[in-house]
Input
Amino acid sequence: MSAKEHDHDHDHDHDAVGENYDVARPAMAPTPEHGYWKSLKELDGKAPWQLAPSDKEFAEGGDEAPVDPLSRRNFFHLMGASMGLAGLGVASGCRRYEAEEIVPLSRRPENQTPGQSLQYATTYEMGGAVHPLVVTSFEGRPIHIDGNPDHPFAGGGVVPGTKKHGGAHIFAQAAILNCYDPDRATSPLNSGKGSSIEAFKAGLAEIKATLSGGRARVLAEASSSLTIQALRRRLEQGGVPWHEYEPISWDNEREGLRAAFGRPLRSLAHLDRAETIVALDCDLFVEHPASMKYSRDWARSRRKDGSLGVGKMNRLWAAESVMSNTGALADHRLPMRSELGLPFAQALDAAITGTGAMPNSEFLKEAKVVQYVTVLAEELKANTGRAVVVCGRRQPPQVHALVAKINQAIQAPVDYIEDFEPTRLHHVESMRQLVAEMQASRVETLIILGGNPVFDAPADLDFAAALTKVKTSIHLGDYADETSQKTTWHIPKAHYLESWGDARTPDGTICLQQPLIQPIHGGLSSAELLSLMLGDELGGEQLVSSTLRGLGHPDWKRYLHDGHIANTAAQPATVQLNPMSPFALTPGQQAGSKRGKNELEVVFHFSGATYDGRFANNAWMQEIPDFLTKVTWDNYALVSPETAQALGVANNEMITVKVGDRKVSLPCYTMPGQAKYSIGLVLGGGRTRAGKVGGENGKTNVGWNTYAVRSTGGFDMVSNCSVTGGGGTYELANVQDHWNFKKGSNKLMKNDGPGFRFDFEVNRRSHELVEEITTDELDADRTWKAESEHEFWDDTADASANKQRARHLSLFEEKEYTGHKWAMAIDLNTCTGCNACMIACQSENNVPVVGRKEVLNNREMHWIRIDRYFQGSVEDPHVVAQPLPCQQCENAPCEQVCPVGATSHSDEGLNDMAYNRCIGTRYCANNCPYRVRRFNFLDWNKEYRDARQKVRQLLFNPEVTVRMRGVMEKCTFCVQRIQNGKIKAKAEIRSGKRSGSVGGPLPDGEIESACQMACPTEAIVFGDLSDDNSRVAALHRDRRSYALLPELYTKPRNKYLTRILNPNPKMPQPPKEDAHGGGHAGAESKGGH
Amino acid sequence: MATEASFEPGKAREHFRAITRDVSWVAEAPKPHKLWLAALGIAVLAFGWGLVSIFHLVTTGIGVWGNSNTVDWAWDITNFVWWIGIGHAGTLISAVLYLTRQHWRVSINRAAEAMTIFAVMCAGLFPLLHTGRPWFAWWMIPHPNDMGSMWPQFRSPLMWDVFAVSTYATTSILFWYMGLVPDLATFRDRCALQGKKVRSVIYGVLSLGWRGSARHWHRYERAYLILAGLATPLVFSVHSVVSFDFATSQLPGWHTTIFPPYFVAGAIFSGFAMVLTLMLPLRYLFNLQHIITQAHVHAMCRIMLATGMMVGLAYGTEFFIAWYSGNAFELFTFRSRAFGPFWWAYFAMVSCNVLVPQFFWSNWVRNNNVLIWILCIFINIGMWFERFVIIATSLSRSFLPSAWSYYHPTKWDVGLFVGTIGLFSMLFLLFFRFVPVIAMSEVKGASPEAHAGGKEGGHH
Output
């Protein structure tokens, strides 16, 4: 965080930096008028610096023209260009202040050291979720995103007494790739044709004239910004109604709490204070707007395993249709159609409060459900004050109201926060009213701030048709997307790393958003566009700072530094429960688990990759494997294996899902654990104007548009749908289970070939690879120790005895480590499978993306992956998962077999990889038992040489080599961070800034790997084993720690900590390893199931 | 003695002359056989396809093949081991059988040695081309440099391969060439007599001034013996070292001590199969049945029967040990090998390598050259599958089920393999046309006429 001390006096410091960096360029660019020339191109007046500024995105960049890569002249041309780019970042960051003077950089700007990165606090708001961040900036270009550890809501860390920790949400991290996306909108469009901001401003008077008398409307994305709110008030006062719409909306909760408490509220559970957590059709860890806080709080109470000696470990219950990360982690999960949420909540309410009537639903009479509800209700009552129910966004307001009632009854640790905008309508209702007005031609001007309603508005409203009745429509969007094609004007929106703003975390804390770079493609923020419409034409910084000053927050520099304003969290509201009348049940809710073929339920599920479709052009996200399905690059329909059989459809078969009279065809993914007769449609696929990656020019590249069957009547879930198969086969690019499903069958494969079952073997190995123990077993056996290499050597024995022992085990002399011993520990107990580590690694280490075809060829490049195995029955599986980076073996099998010594061991125990030396025999990969090595089978970075794509090179981390084809690569424990940490410590010791010896131990936590920093639950801990007091050393000593495949005597430097399960003794127990069964089909091993 | 200049009178002389004539005719016939031309044409085409495949591979990357992050080696190393195995019969015939005084070897050793050299050339292509950056493959060769870390890493079996294969190639070439010298001198003299000046000069240079003097013969015999002594261990070392690529790894299915003898037996097995595959049609084509007699075919069939059963025994032993070791990973790998996704490859291997040689028990089969040729083709296929099964099945089902996968070759995998077959065939066909295909001098030495009074057992 060194650079966080950086003084953010932007007006001046920044200005100065800008001038000084900018100026070097004209000086380097003499023209023939000077009497000499350096190239023929220059003589012709065609050198980059001679072109008109409007032709160039960058003053000096290498992106001007497509170049012939083979020409020698162009090679030197490019060399020059890349030198230009090196200075570009800082320069462009300051280009909002025109550089006019030519002076050398005689004094180094404060806190700026060329070649050293800086970190700035900022904020990202997406779909109503606010992520306070720290952005690493290298010479003026943002290259990496982390969570803000100092933020009161989103930071702070999990383990008390250690360094503060932030954790970064996968979407916030991945959005940095969009910043450098060459497909982003570069100039305004007028009726789909290229235009300019000047042209827009020229016609602005006419548009402004309509901003009164109810002739104009604003359609905005969800925003918690105070600045936007202030501008909104001004517009509303002028008679411009404001509509808000998000395709993935938490407004059901708002309405439910309105029903329960009389006014719209947002709930904020304190999972760290809960011993029983119930997630009702709710993903706490990825989808929830407070997911980062929830992950951290859950992990806090999940760690109370007795070894830390604080309280009891929590128990997680989940009832849901589509299996979520939360369901996968739950101690008890009930697969349940989403529509059954209402009877489920009613039953729970009846059992707890005794006030509601037991609903008449067949579902609640099923033995499994009876047991689940009874035991859960008992436990909730027993844990009054220490139990909480969290309800998901899909559930209708009635269920949210019931959950609020239950939480009141059990005195759950839930805060209710006043809504930032209490008068606004439910997103769907708001959109419905807006479209009705548009259809009635009452809207002359429509300002669309972000979002992509033509693509994601409810299909029955036909937003695109309504848009034709609007005289002037203005779409502010970062891409010229589906909506931009239909509006009168499209204005490029500045990326969040390019613009000023503010936001409020769910607790009300005000966060600052500051730009890290000058808008690469130009563009305005929402506030700037509104300001333009209102006639102020104020800049973003002025807008935000004046808003805050107006609210009595004058310490601008402090806020910029911190990224938030301290002590602005709202007080929880005092609430009074309204009496509730009983809710009537639909036929679907009265039915049991089994439904007819035409009575299927369809639920709409967010995509862990593209969210609602907005990340469709983000190749990192398209290639991130879903935690549970492990599918990349496409969306699909989730169908339970039993249901698929009943419907006669198979895995990877193209199916047609009929919802009302709307249909969509997409591939079927048979998902163990998916609720029976409930079809999960993943949103976000089928974009036609996302860009090169996600689909452009009206053609889809990735997935299928499931919004086509989403209407206002069935926005979150809809009953009485049907499915027909027979559409042929489409192979989904799955990174893990290439072998898992038999072709053309919905059954998990038991047989690998003609004659023998391998599911036993997978089951056996999964139990060995991912060790688990229940709290009861742990309590009963105080001497229990995770299986490990302790069979082979003994950490507690004296060194000579171990050496003696080792001599019998290894042909080679065991290496002795005298200095640092870098190591990692991964706590399987708190890994939520949120994929944040994978994207963090991808961003930090310039990990390439390979595309769907190459994923199918099994050539994905992720350095850290999350292995996932199912145990127990197919209908209600137990899920185990394991993040897997390079294990950094002390006896690394890969090192021995490299003929050229390209991979070798460092004195600090790292398994280093010298890319320059690698000739690509791939022998190391074959000999790696953990299969973590990744080979560059093709030139994955080829496209970066394309002139248009070259802007993406700006995102590369300059500390990490970009690997060429033909070399092997792998996780290095972020060796560049280790070296930087060591260098920094050395410099500080030498200059007397800190005590200690050069090369001596570093303070624990000073060096953190990218995956560790991103992990919201601190499940990944990196550190120095030679320091007995380090956390990693403590975790390695923990009795839960074990090495993967210890019998190979690889002595991994990464250890796993056994996952602890906390089942209720009255419920079915987790599956045990069973030599004779308990494979995928071994329902009997699930006990009572 | 080696030429017409021999003064030995009578029948023996006629016999020797006949041998010389019959062997030289292969090279001296004014027009090549039409079938030979056709075969050469096909071989050149196949080699051309191989060159295209190599060009595409080197310019695009290993990704043009079917290899993946799970199955990192597949056809590349399969082909390498297969070709190296084929190259085994040559040295075995020339060195081991020489030392053990198996005189029947003389009619086939020349061609077998040539086959060895060409097979090793084909084999050598794969370790080079299978690297991601073949232009840096020279880093595997120890070379003095001022960057200390540029030294090869000698713990790697791939380094051992480099030395084993290059030593084998060198020794084989020396051995082959040494044996050729007297016969090249025969060609030289015959060309000179026929007035073919260019040819006579070329053969003259190649025959290194051989005159056939007693001193020449004495030194020749000594050198031959020494080289045979040096080459004999190589027969066993090369494939043992190649097997170390697998045996020293930790992968279940690779990590087995049985590999060295098993690989050597398999190599000899496949080597003889390839000798017969080539010699049966060629001896017919060039009328050499009286030199490469049915007795020779019989002997080779018996060797294949023996080595085939050794290979079969190894297959059984592997399974037994997988079970007996109690190692669950090992047992799974072998079960998966036989009954898993590559079961078809495993059954191709077992039926070709264990069942097919059983036919050689029958005298009738050993006299039926067409059938032998077909069976030998099957053995060649089976031995290719043996290497494929070892490599691909083990890699596709390694320790972590999350990494399990399958392997499909691409047209470029096939292209390079077919290309090497083309290269091999092309070289072998050219060899038949321009080099003495049978060691004339040795055949003469081993024939009864060479021994005074026709006594058996004497040597020269």
Notes: Chain B touches chain A through 59 residues (CB under 8 Å). The longest helix of chain B spans residues 157-194.
